[in-house]
Amino acid sequence: MSAKINPRLVLIAALLLGGAVRLSAQAVQINSIDPRLTPQPLHPTSIKLSDQKLQSKTRGELVRIMEAEEAFTMRALPLGKKGITLRANGGVTPDGSDYLAAIKQNGVSAKPGATVHVSNIRIEGDKVILDLNGGPEKKHHWLQHFSVGNGPQLAPYEDDPTGARVTLLFPKYVPEMTGQEMKALLSPLLDFSLKSPLEAYTDTLPPLLRDAVKDHRVLVGMDREMVHYAMGEPDRKWHEDGPDGWTYEEWIYGHPPADVQFVRFTADRVTRMEIAAIGKDPIIRDQDETNGYVAKKPGNEKIINEGDAAPTQQQAPPSLRRPGEAAPSDQPQPVKAPGGNQIASQLMASVR
Length: 352
Known about the structure:
The protein is α+β, with helices and mostly antiparallel strands. It has helices at 7-16, 56-66, 96-106, 179-186, 197-202, 207-214, 224-231, 341-351, and strands at 70-73, 77-78, 84-87, 92-93, 108-110, 115-124, 127-132, 164-169, 190-191, 236-241, 247-253, 260-266, 269-276, 283-285.
C-alpha cells in the first residue's frame, strides 16, 4: 500500500528547489457550511409614510411590481411560518437571542447575501406579507387524495418547503406608497438594487471582513464561504487527521514558482494561514484576525447545514417509577411474608 503524500511538504520543497516540482492532486469534495449567523446591526429606514390608506388600484399595482421580483438577503432568513417581521421605519422581530434561537430551532432558508425571489405577496390590514422562494408552507392539492388503481397519486406530495416569509408591519394600516417606497422600507432585510453576488455578500459583513474579501485576502477566523468569496475555488484540497482528534482541511492556492497559500480549516474556521515563497521562510499566522467576529475555537458543537433543523434534546427513557423515585438496588433482598411476623409464625407452626 502506497503512503499518502502531504502536498504542503511537496510544494514547500518545490519552492525551495526553485519551483522545479509540480503537484497534481485530486480535490476533495466537501459540503457547504453555514457562515456565522449573527447579523450586523440593523439600521432603520426613515421613509415618510402617507396618511392615506392603500387604495385598491395601488394595491394591485404593488402586487404586480413586487411579484417575481428578486432581492439579496441582508441577514439569514429562518424557516417556519412565523418568519421575520420588519416594522416600517423600525426594528425586526425576532432579534438578538430570539433571532438566533429561531435559526437554531427551525433552520435557515436563505443565507446572508443569497438571492431570493418574491413568490407571493399579500396585503392584509396593517401588514404586507411576502413569501420568498415558494414560502414556508407546504402546498396542498385535492388531487393528492386520489390515485388511479394501484398507481401513484394524481398529484404527488411535495417535499417540505424551504422558503421564507417576511412581514412588513405598519403602525395602523398599510398606507399609499409606490413600489420604490416599499422596496426602500424592506431594505434592512431585502436589497432590491442591482448588485453582483460579491457586492451583495460583502454588504452583510463588518468593514474589516468586507475589505479583506474585496482585496482577496484571507484572515484567520474566516469561514469557508468568506474564503471562497475572497479567493475563489482552491487549486487543491487536502485533509488529514490531527493529533487532537480533529480533521484538518487545507485549501491550497497557487503553484511554484509563484507564492503558495495554505489555508487550514478546523471545523468551519480558518485556524492557520501559511504563505510559502521561493527563497523565504514561510509566513505563518494562527491567531484570530477578525476582532472576534467569528473567532470561536472548535469544540464539541453540532454544525448545521443550510435548511437543517437543530437536534432536539435527548429524552429520558420511559419508566414506571415516580419522578424522583430511586431505582431499586441490584443486591438480593430478604423476602418478607405478607401480614408480618404473626402470620409467618402461624405458617411455621402448621408445617410442624
